[in-house]
Design brief:
The protein has 130 residues and is of the alpha+beta class. It has helices at 52-64, 121-127; strands at residues 13-19, 25-30, 39-40, 43-45, 66-77, 80-90, 100-106.
Length: 130
């Protein structure tokens, strides 16, 4: 377990918008505060030694078991980095840690994709749902 001494003084959040070969997006059902029981895009806080891209790839792996490829930064809004990436591989035997209750692929238009964090919808609308 990594201690809080490795969290940035001014926290930065990374969010992965990860698509599979069918064009569906990876989402998780949260199992810890905030937003317990709500669906969200995988993501979390960046550690002090990580680049934002490395943090996104780590968070996506920890929450979904997906190895990401062809990742690129869509936009940085305030302290949140939004990345678009594609599934290279997903370990079907993977079991997420305590933070995640369930994993699923959904259509980008599914309202559950941004259930936990509705502000993410404007990113999807602007960059992916044109």
């Amino acid at each position: 377990m990594i201690g809080t001494e490795h969290i940035l003084a001014e926290p930065e959040t990374v969010v992965g918008i990860i698509l599979n070969a069918e064009g569906l997006v990876a989402v998780i059902k949260r199992n810890c505060p905030p937003m317990v029981g709500k669906w969200a895009l995988p993501g979390g806080e960046r550690w002090e030694w990580e680049t934002p891209l490395a943090a996104m790839e780590r968070e996506v792996w920890e929450e979904t078991g997906i190895v990401v490829q062809k990742s690129s930064l869509l936009v940085k809004e305030g302290s949140i980095y939004y990345f678009l990436g594609y599934e290279l591989h997903r370990d079907e035997r993977f079991h997420p840690d305590f933070e995640v209750e369930q994993f699923q692929y959904m259509k980008l238009q599914d309202p559950r994709v941004t259930e936990a964090y509705p502000e993410n919808q404007k990113i999807l609308d602007k960059f992916l749902l044109l």
